Structure formats: C-alpha cells, structure tokens
Amino acid sequence: MMHLTVQQLSSALDGALGGPSLELVVRHLARCHECRDRQARLARFDDALRRLLAVDPHEFFLDDLGRRAESIVVAVARGLPVPPMVTSLPLIDDEDPYEAVEPPPEVRPELGRAAELARHAGFGRIGLKPTASAQAPASDPEQADRMLEALASGDTADFEELTARDFDAPDAGTDAGDAEAEGIPDGPVFDLPEWVKEGAPRRRASPGARVVRAIPKLQLMFERLDERAAHLSRGAVEEVFRPEPDAAAGGEDARAAGEAAVLPEAPFDPHAWAGDGLATSDLPRAHTEPVTDAYELVDEPGDAPSPAADVSLEHPRRPGRRVGRADAAFPAPAPRSRMPLAVALTSVAALAALVAVLQWTPADPAAPGGARAPRLPRIEFVGLDSSGAPTPPSTTPDLRLAITPAPVESLVATPLSPSGAAPADSGRVDPPADSLGRNPGR
Amino acid sequence: MDETPNRPWTEPGLDPERVAAAQRGDVDALLALVRAHRLPLWRACFAITRHLAEAELLFQETQALAVRQLRAAPVGRAFLPWLVKLARQIDAARWRGRDDRPSVGYRRPNGEPWLAGSRGAHWVEDEQKTLHAFAQLHPDDQWLMVLRLFERLPYEEIAQVTGFPVPRVMNRLALAREYLERVHELGERAA
Known about the structure:
The complex is a heterodimer.
Chain A: H1 6-14, H2 20-31, H3 33-53, H4 59-78, H5 113-121, H6 141-153, H7 164-168, H8 176-182, H9 194-199, H10 227-230, H11 234-240, H12 245-249, H13 251-256, H14 270-273, E1 313-314, E2 322-323, H15 339-360, E3 383-384, E4 390-391, H16 399-403, H17 408-411
Antiparallel strand pairs in A: 1-2, 3-4
Helix pairs in contact in A: 2-3
Chain B: H1 15-23, H2 27-36, H3 38-49, H4 52-68, H5 80-94, H6 121-136, H7 139-150, H8 155-162, H9 166-190
C-alpha cells in the first residue's frame, strides 16, 4: 500500500488541501492507521511548539516592555542619549543553572507532626510519588453499627477507647487493666527514678478514688517590703511588719527555724497608712508566716480563712492601689550577709601572721646574725668525685663555672710559636695556611 | 478606532501614513506605529530567541534600529514584515561567530519551571525534544513554522511575507515537520 507523503500530511494539517487532493488524503487516512498515527504525531509536535513559543505575555508585562521601548524610540528619534536596555530576567548567558526551579515548599508549623510525616511520605511534592497510602484505613461497617447502637443505648463498656498510651507504646495495652486498677490517669506514663521511689513509698489510691496531682508549692517569706516600690511611707511599712506580742515572744524560735526575720517596732501612724476605720488588730501577720502559694486567689472550701487573704489596704496617695499578698510574688532582695567579708579578712590576717612567723623565726640561732635570718629551706648541691662518692659541698661555690661559658682561649687554637713547634699543651695541630691566608684543608 | 490592523502581516492599514509622518519627524506617528505592532513583534522576537529575556532585549533593539533606519522602511506596504526582518537580522548578527544558542534552557522559554506549565514529566520530555529539534532547523524554516503555527497565516500570505513561492513554502514546511519527527525518533532510539 502506498502511504501518504509528508507533504500531503503537512498540507492536510494546515488545511491547505482541497478538491481531489483532500478527498484522496481523507480516504487514505480512513483506511491506513500508520498514516493516521504519523499525522497525529506531526500534530503533536505542532501543539508542543505552540505551548512553548506561542504564549502571549501578560498585559502588564507587555505594557512595561512597551514603555521601555518607547522611551528608547523617543530618545533615538530626538537624538537624546539612549537609556539602557534592561530585561526582567537574566539573559541566557547569565542564567544560574543551580537556581531553584521550584519555590520552596510551604511551611505549615501548625500541622505539626502530621505535616512532617506527610512531607516525608512525599505528599505535596511535584514529581515524587507518595510512599504512603493516600486512602484512609479500611473500616468495619458492622463494627461501626455496633458502636452507634452502643452509643445510643449508653453501654459502651465493650469498646476500647483509643488513648495516647496505646498510640505511643503498643505493648502498653497489656497492663492497661493494671493501670486502671491503680487509678493512674489516662495519658503518657512517666516513671519516677529509683531513688525517689525508695525514699518515698508509692501511695496507691483506691480504684474509685480521684487521683490528685501533687504540685510542690513555692515557699516564700516576707522579709522586707520595698517601701519605695510600694510608694508607702516608712512608718506604714514598719507598721506592716510590726510583730504582735505573741510573735515577738517566739521570735527567737522562728529565727532558729529559719523563718523570716522581724523588723523592729516603729510607732504606728494611721494617717500615713490611710486605712479609714482600720485598727491595729486588723493588720495581718503575714510577715511572720511563710507564704505557701503567692498566687493563691481562691481558698479551698475546707480551709480556714487566711488572714492574709483579707488584706485590703489602700495606698495613701493612690486610692486605687492595693497592697497585700500580691506583692509577695515580688519579694524584696534579701539583705546581704557579711560572712564573706569576715572570711576574707580572716584569711588575709592568717596569711600575714604566717609570713611574720616565717620572717622572724631564726633559721640557725648559732649563725652570726641569724637571729633575724629567714627560715627558708636550704638546698645543697652535692657533687660526685671520680669514684662516685659524694664530695662535701663547698662553702664558696664557683658560680662562674656554672653559669659562664668556657673562655674563648680554650676554643681558639693556640698560634704556633716562632720556632714552629706546637705548644706542649695543645693536642691538635692545624695545617698551615696558604699564601692567601686560607686554609685549604678546610 | 482600533489601531491594530486586522492582518498586520499583509495589509498595510494605516502604516503608510504613519511611516510617512514618522519619516518627516512626527514622533507621535512613530509611537503609534510602534504601538500598533507591539504584540506581533513581541511574538516574533520570542519565537526567534526562544528565551524571555533575550526576546525583551531583541524587542528593544529592533525598535531602536527601526527608528534609526526609518528612511529605509517600505512605503505603501505592511510595516510589520520589515520590522521582523530587522529583528531576525539583529539576532543573526548577535550570534554570528559564537556558539549556537542553547536549544533547551534551564527553564521553559517563558521563564517558568519546566514542570510548572506541563502535565507531567513525559510531557516535559516531549516538549524538550521538540524544542531541540526546532532549534536545529534552518532559520528560514523556523520562520516559516512561526508564521504558520503561531501566526496561523495561510500559505499564500506566508509566501507574500517571506517572498518564497507557495509550493516552496509548502514543501519546506513539510520537510521541517519531518525533521522534527526524525529528531524525535532518534532521541527515542538513543534513550
């Protein structure tokens, strides 16, 4: 069978055929699948080229380019300096082959671990097939029906509730019953270290008892109120910290127990404190008692009312300002101790005494003038004779031999005597120098 | 009044009057002439260079050269073919004596990533092969395909624009398509 030529196929694609030529081509294409495939292939190339090169630019882009070109045209037409020709992208020679071809993936921190898993699995990345299934896990319709019926009837004892412990630790389901029996609240389980468990035996609550999480309370002491920060007068501050007679009696015991120190008494000035109708007996005694929770605002139902909780004192010049236990959250800095200074002074004094003792103790009372000689350790250098026996140290050591180099005369060859004989004490005879004074032997 | 002629490649429209006025020094007529052929000139520059930034540069250079050589512009004929002829001459002069222009760039010709404007990786491969084959064609054949595929001109108008006879236009277009097919087949065999 004769196939169509490429000219016929190309002209048919362009719609340039007519008459008998078009009829012939159509009839052949109806019978020949090879020519149909080839024509489809040629049409595919045309479409690809149109997609790549026949894209009209955006209106904004074309307007911007037109403005730039018109400025150049006007400049050339009027003989003005031509503005530089600029492009919106780097030219083909200036392109960066390592430039990222895709924008960085959008970061979604609010999705947390789920987004991290999805990203690792390949979701949302062009050109990467996800490794994880995009389908939800298969569910059991019958199980769902039973669950709905149980929810309607209110009897859901046969269904296990998914918990965080089951999700994090698959083997934690074996002792789930034990945990429920012990009354451990649902959620992640944290175990205490051994030394804690040995020191404090674990208290097991009854199965039906409510487990209360024990939170260590902060122990705060009122020692001193910063009257400048509180905008109070000195008298008012001292009145706040004035101990009551029973507290003053037990002051020594309180100090021994490490509690707060009590400021000395001061005369009470009710006008400075500005508490209308406030008697001295109404003042709290919070400064003598430890504050267990500075942020405690609501008392427990069974607790006795705390005297400090009833504090409602107003500032004399600022009526809206209240001064009370809320200031305990910002206690004044503790007074600086003088113990480090005392220790430092004691150390200096001891060192000075030691130096004085060493200075004035006679090293050798029999030596002349040794009454005031310093008592320092004596270091002796003991020499050895040819037999290896130690020689007694010299009272006048020859330090010159020890620290000065050998005399130059011993290193330089002794010149020949006028008679040409070498001196008797010289063991080396140098060859005679030549006429130029040089020694050819060297 | 629409300033753009219906068939800018073959019909002169208002071009002769504007060209004559521009040759007399009328800057407004010159700007009107430039604006009227802005879009077809941009398409031609983009098809010639196959690169967005290169097309921008060629567009500006072409208009600047057209103003300088305005006295040589054809009077009584369409202005656009002469304008595009200048663009082809500028591009040929720029790449004369240099290595060939890269047939396939790091991005699509319009500056987008290759994968962004396509339906998949296999489409990108086909497009890159086609673009490479198109770049290997003779510039005259490239220009014929641009006029036929992008400007959708009939053979008669293509012959009028290029000056080739109609049978030659038809034959060269067919051979250009066959060349694209051959390059594609060779690429598939090599792969």
